């Protein structure tokens, strides 16, 4: 937005600094506890949890690879729908939340933050 003293990298930089601080605190607490550096969490035994983690990572990779060609709306609905189904939501709830969530996210970026998201195949219908 015109007239601001900070640019578009300010907010992600602030988040990165906070995450770096939290990471440093976690490393410090781990070193003080003198515990094992790598342990297997209990949830890894759950098949549903492994599917959820795989769906999350796969969805992020899919988004990165196809969002420019397919567009934010189609990619967002697809990824959110798969994530919701992998978490156990019904088809009806997954479809409704995926569509509404994608529209809300798009308008938050497009209108609120003035950051255009790719339209992809829907570009001819963009307003």
Structural account:
It is a single chain. The chain is flat, with a radius of gyration of 19 Å. It folds into two domains: 7-39; 43-125, no CATH class. 67% of the residues lie in helices and 0% in strands. The protein is built from four helices and no strands. α2 (47-70) packs antiparallel against α3 (72-86) and α3 crosses α4. By secondary structure, it is an all-alpha fold.
Quick summary of this structure?
This protein is mainly alpha-helical and 127 residues long. It is built from 4 helices and no strands.
Name the descriptors.
0% strand; 4 helices; 127 residues; mainly alpha; flat
Topology, please?
Elements: H1 10-33, H2 47-70, H3 72-86, H4 91-112
Helix pairs in contact: 2-3, 3-4
